[in-house]
## 1
Amino acid sequence: MTTNYETMYILRPDLGDEQAEQAITKYQNLLRDQGAEDIQIQNRGKRRLAYEIKKHRDGIYIQLNYTAPATAIAPFERAMRLSEEVIRYLTIKQDIAEEKPPKEEKEKPTKVAATV
């Protein structure tokens, strides 16, 4: 069964444009090899970090939205953890609500006043 996921990761700011593109392609191919589909990549650009991470004040933010089996996440995150180009990552399982018809309220029986 496949699930929708969103992964946001931050690359080191000292990577050049070509190196950043190679890293993005590397992780995209890794996901595809693990069975991911519908991979959407958004390069959010270089931004200031809220606090220093591994002696870096800036980072290149990349967002991935994809559909993958649950077994694809562990190898993907392991590759990021071992990589020196990624300084932080987070994967979130997205709950996409299916449209359900509204529940019909049961009609309450009306009480009829008895006249005596």
Note: The chain has two helices and four strands.
## 2
Amino acid sequence: MEAFFQKKRQAMIDRLSNRNQSRTATADDSTRSADDDNPDSAVASKFSESKCSIDSLLDKSSSVDSSAIRSHFDGISSSIAALEQLVVESSYSLPSYELRSALKSVAELKQRLENQSAELLPKKKFSFRNKSATAAAKSSAAVRPKDPELPKLQPPVLVIRESPGFHNAKDATLTKNFRGLGIGEFTASDLDSCEVRLIGCINALFINRLRNCRDDRKGKKVRG
């Protein structure tokens, strides 16, 4: 008799278990059917999961070793790009307010990544490069050839030809008769307050540094 009741009890438990499994399967089918009928819900769910994953990675950035921080940020950047691509591909089906919200979230993730990259990535060192550039500039200046010096122009020098004449006299009356002498050139130089009398003809008369002198032929003072 007792065995009979145990058998009946086990049969009831099995029926309840089968009924519960059937209800669970029906609920899962309903959920999948609802997701198929509402693609926006699936996109929103996928977006939310991806965003949470990226936020979690960004929260862990400060604890990542410096040797792996660059690859860490590269992975986050790829995830953000994939999330943005999801939003772009779903832009025609998403309501406008959900689209704006999704784009804003992507922009905030990008900004967080940029801020953390600026803070945690190792800075480039420019000191050695600057020193090298300075040394190269000095070396270039040292080997630069100097411009050739142009020859200095000297003022023209007046050359007094050696010829017969009156030279270095002061307060004197100087007379010269050229008739029959055949002198072609004559010079009067360095005379001060002298009266010069020239008789006859010559081919050329050179005058240099005369002061207060008089030409007897013209009765005029001669300077030169």
Note: Helices lie at 2-37, 39-59, 69-89, 96-120, 127-143.
## 3
Amino acid sequence: MVITLVGEKLAKPGLEFIYYGPGEPCKTCRLARVCIGNLEPGRRYKIVRVRNIEHPCPLHEGKVRVVEVVEPAIEVLMEPRYAIVGSKIKLSFVECNDDDKAELVRPEGLFEGDLVKILEIVDDVECGGRKYKLVKVMREKG
């Protein structure tokens, strides 16, 4: 669980977002350490709890709220031989040039080489004549 700040209009349990890095006003903000200091650029986060604390923010149209976030499970295509529920593997993206499947091939929030735990096999997917497994994974830290 990570504590961070999000714009009050976005502060809703269940909302997912990608953190892309600090905005210009963040570089001099006194709350930057708690707001962006706990987030990794390029990672996906899901709000699990909104606390009743708010702060002024020049970036988020007035105010930000304190929230608790986690990295959610993410769906990704994988070679069938690696798709074993419960196993932990180093993520290797598959080759698939179908634009409709781009978000499953290289989903935002995951990077090549991440250590992930396979939680569930969701579906079988074909791309370019090859068969892959669509799996739900959770990134393992450290």
Note: The two ends are 15 Å apart (CA to CA).
